[in-house]
Amino acid sequence: MHVRMWWLVLGLPLLGVVATQSPACGDERPRVVQWRRHVINDRSPFEAAGVADFDVDGHLDVFCGDSWYAGPDWKRHTVRVVPLGTNPQYHEDFADAPLDVNGDGRIDIVTCAYFSQQIAWVENPEDPTGPWKEHLIGRPGSMETGYLRQLFGDDRPVFLPNVGGRVMWYELASRGPPVRWEPRQLSPEGAGHGLGDGDVNGDGRIDLVTPNGWYEQPAERSSDWTFHPEFSLGVASIEILAHDFDGDGNTDIVWGKGHDFGLHWLRQTRDAEGRRAWVHGDIDDGFSQVHTLHSADFDGDGRQDFVTGKRIYAHAAEPGATDAPCIYVFRFDRSSARWLKSVVYEGEPANAPADARLRDALQDFARGSAGTGLRMVVRDLDGDGDVDLVTPGKSGLYWFENQPAPRADSP
Q1: CA distance 20 to 23
Q2: What is the mean pLDDT of the chain?
Q3: Is the Cβ–Cβ distance between 113 and 91 less than 8 Å?
Q4: Three-state DSSP class for 164?
Q5: Residues with Cβ within 8 Å of residue 333, at least 6 apart in sequence
Q6: Alpha carbons 143 and 166: distance in angstroms, whole number
Q7: Can you list the residues of the chain whose pLDDT is less than 70?
Q8: In angstroms, how far is CA 290 from the centroid of its own chain?
Q9: How far is Cα 211 from Cα 259, in angstroms, rounded to an integer?
Q10: Of 264, 329, 289, 258, which Cα lies nearest the Cα of 30?
Q11: CB 119 within 8 A of CB 159
Q12: Which among 12, 16, 69, 73 has a CA at the least distance from the CA of 43?
């Protein structure tokens, strides 16, 4: 496996623990990180998750697919039916975004689906262990996934779906009654497999990033968004990250190849005339199906890292589909201008049928195998002050607890 640099890794696979040592570089003081794997449901086949206090008991819970799991013991409550897609290797649950949609003080779920082409919100009832009712928001087309953002910096959430052939969103205009979502569609030039957001041009407003360029948010909410066709990313991840990782004051772009090998970045620079330019760099080409990325400060050094890995059976037949599952955190070391990789989890390759139509992640991969699914959750799940991971996927649902690793010189 080719990478630019490994952090020192101490693996304790039988305990579900991977400890990672990252060196302090210059004024950077990253905390030594240890990841402990907890099984929430190793038979769950759903690829999205959301974290919130669904029963209002003071503990964070996990929603995934047809059920939510009550923290801290992860008791399962099945509250809806999620059908298989037209392709039975997928379930019709491509996002599970927590939001109090109707303003009743209970956290609901915003979801979307590829085969039915619909976006809906699933209402948390007075008794959260009972059936949750689904309410249609719209049917914009087939969606890989979607996520919530405060796109305009106010209190009106926006759901951003990655719809084939479209660039659009649904804004929660009224919590009701009745609940009202307003769709908005931009010009289609940037549409493709992949979506992200961030302040690309440094004007303080959140822009949209697509595989074919970026859309500039205007000063006026109702104005047109200008499309800038400045790069081409191919079949990209969701999310595409837009953040100043190298600390030069310009927003960079980081993305993975959703259905192939490759994790890359574009460093934003200026040419001699002061015009924006992009310099391509490779981060890692050792794993495939790099379908989702999430940024956070995992090691406590005050800077944004990002987490990604393999989406198990993004397609059951494509480059690297049966390779070992993996989840990694990447940090840009500004003193050496290199990306450093640490291991959250590495598993074993699949024992899969030659006929991809017969493949099933729960059967082909060893029990307990973890991948990124479509939407991981980055959240302090145990309230200890650091950022944990919840990783759904076709091979199960897991919590990776971020713990301070013991010092090498400890007794």
Answers
A1: 10
A2: 92
A3: no
A4: coil
A5: 25, 28, 339, 340
A6: 10
A7: 1-30, 405-411
A8: 10
A9: 14
A10: 329
A11: yes
A12: 69
Report the alpha-carbon distance of residue 94 to residue 50 in Å, rounded: 11
Q: Is 169 helix (H, G, I), strand (E, B) or coil?
A: strand
- What local confidence, expressed as pLDDT, does residue 7 receive? 33
Q: Which two tokens stand for residue 39?
A: 């099984």
Record the pTM.
0.91
Give tens-digit pLDDT for 345-386.
999 999 999 999 999 999 999 999 999 999 999 999 999 999
Give, in order, the Cα–Cα distances in Å from 244 to each of 77, 162, 249. 41, 23, 6
How far apart are the C-alpha atoms of 277 and 291, rounded to whole Å?
26
For residue 261, give both structure tokens.
């090998």
Closest CA to 87 of 364, 319, 314, 374: 314
Question: What is the number of alpha carbons within 13 Å of residue 393 lying toward its C-beta?
Answer: 32
CB environment 369-394: b (16+ within 10 A), e (fewer):
bbbbbbbbbbbebbeeebbbbbbbbb
